Amino acid sequence: MLALLHKMNPKSLAICLLATLILVFTPFVQAAEKEAVKIIEIKVDAAVTPREVEGNSLNKVLDESWHVIQVKFSTEEELSEEVQVKFFVEGADSKKEAQFVVLTSEVTFINVPKGDHMAFVYLPPGSAQRYAGDKGKDLKDFNVHVDILQNGRLAAQQDKEKDDANWYSSGLQVNSVLVPLIDSPFWPANARRVNQIKAKN
């Protein structure tokens, strides 16, 4: 084999080496493509409390709509061990002269099959009054950033609105306000729309 390589001219040798590299690395490239994650849509909307959990509250604010931040995404790997979705939601703290803050939350799914998926977090009415502008009505106009990690590796990231890069890392992060789907009154109605959620230890 070495003798044959010595007899080849430089151009033929280069072509031969390139072909060899393609054959060697193609399986690795294909494997990486199978792990691809694509964010399809980031959406903010009002969420009416499900009828089965409705009741008369002692405060009219609690009867107002929640806000839902939802992400639709797809995975190409046949079965991902873990897919973690991280939410960063722009907010303005009315208790601190509309100080810019970033509301954060995350959810981890396990044993995620190939295909399209959804992830949700919610902002309750009282917290919306504090962090979502004019009496909680401006959240739709605020930006949202989403990171998705697949098997521990950052696989996709996207903003709902175009903005300065890394805007979500410059504000005070508040991680106790957004409510995960599984802890919200919307869980029973949406349980079949999401993958298995990793239990917290």
What this model shows, in words?
This protein folds into two domains: 34 residues; 157 residues, Immunoglobulin-like, CATH 2.60.40. The chain is 21% helix and 41% strand. Strands 1, 2, 3, 4, 5, 6 and 7 form a seven-stranded mixed sheet that branches. A hairpin with a 5-residue loop joins strand 2 and strand 3. The longest helix has 25 residues. 24% of the residues are buried.
Structure described in brief:
The chain is α+β, with helices and mostly antiparallel strands and 201 residues long.
- Give the number of helices: 4
CATH architecture of the largest domain: Sandwich
Number of strands: 7
List the helices and strands in order.
HHEEEHEEEEH
Name of the CATH superfamily of the largest domain: Immunoglobulins
Number of individual domains: 2
Which CATH class of the largest domain is shown?
Mainly Beta
Q: Describe the sheet with the most strands.
A: 7 strands, mixed
Mean pLDDT: 84
Helix content: 10-25%
* Beta-strand content bin: 35-45%
Shape designation: globular
For the record, give the distance between the C-alpha atoms at the N and C termini, rounded to a whole number.
58 Å
Low-confidence stretches: 28-32
Here the CATH topology of the largest domain equals: Immunoglobulin-like
The rounded Rg comes to 23 Å
SSE inventory with pairings:
Layout: H1 2-7, H2 10-34, E1 37-47, E2 66-93, E3 99-123, H3 125-131, E4 144-150, E5 153-159, E6 172-174, E7 179-180, H4 187-190
Parallel strand pairs: 3-6
Antiparallel strand pairs: 1-2, 2-3, 2-4, 3-7, 4-5
